[in-house]
Amino acid sequence: MPKHGKSYNEVKAKVDRTVEVSPAAAVKLVKELKRAKFTESIEIHVRTGLNVRHADEQLRGTIALPHGLGKEVKIAVFARGDKAAEATAAGADVVGDEDLAKRVEEGFTDFDVAIATPDMMPVVGRLGRVLGPSGKMPNPKVGTVTMDVAKAVTEAKAGKVEYRTDRTAIVHLTIGKVDFPDSQLLENYAAVIDELMRAKPSAAKGKYIKSITMASTMGPGVKVDPTRIKDILEEATPTAA
User: Fold this and answer.
1) How far apart are CA 65 and CA 31, in angstroms?
2) What's one GO-annotated cellular component (predicted)?
3) Beta strand residue intervals within the chain, DSSP E
């Protein structure tokens, strides 16, 4: 296990890992625990009770966060001709067909979201080894394989993010930056929880959301009460920063 430095251990000592706090309290505490000189992101890690070895218990979809992610989202689009021009006009950062696929095969992954037109999937499909592990493989189920590339690019730029369970049935998502007002972070958090509850697989058995941890990029995790899934925004005080 990697050893943490002195500053990390100092802020970790301020967290009682045996206590689950409300989402509002978690946001305040995570902000207090930030320690990096750059503007850290705030992430949540939701452990589900799903058995992801079963296809009908896997969780995957997209969500448009009310206040975005607070960062520039880099978009790569695999398209030809008019669709390539549409993607460029919509603000895609890199657009190409076989040439872009070759760059990715050679290790180019400097983008957050990959979008492809259906006719490009025979080419893009060969990139699974590179794009799959990082969750960047275009998928029609989440709207990243589409002929409406302009809409897909616009939504991704506005903060639409993909979520999925990993091999251990955990969903990892960023909900904003530490300099977001508390109310905006809570609205993004509430939107994520609402979406996860809406998308609960019908085959799910037992406890669905087992635990939730919130943390900044460089800070320790804070346990959030997983039963607080309603009236989340009412926890925020009018003076929340």
Assistant:
1) 20
2) ribosome
3) 41-48, 60-64, 75-78, 94-96, 113-116, 160-164, 170-177, 209-216, 222-224
Q: CB–CB of 145/138 below 8 Å?
A: yes
Q: pTM of the full predicted structure?
A: 0.74
The answer to whether 133 and 109 have CB atoms below 8 angstroms apart is no
pLDDT tens readout for residues 76-131: 999 999 999 999 999 999 999 999 999 999 999 999 899 999 999 999 999 999 99
Residue-wise pLDDT tens digits, 200-220: 999 999 999 999 999 998 888
Segment 152-156 long-range contacts (CB within 8 Å, at least 24 positions apart): 152/115, 153/75, 153/77, 153/87, 153/90, 153/91, 153/92, 153/115, 154/90, 154/91, 155/64, 156/73, 156/75, 156/112, 156/113, 156/115
- Which stretches of 50-134 are assigned E, i.e. beta strand? 60-64, 75-78, 94-96, 113-116
Please return the burial class of 185, using the count of CB atoms within 10 Å of its CB with bins 0-12, 13-18 and 19+.
Answer: buried
**Token pair recorded at residue 116:** 């492809």
Q: Which amino acid is at 29?
A: L
Measured in degrees and rounded to the nearest 5, phi and psi for residue 210 equal -90, -40
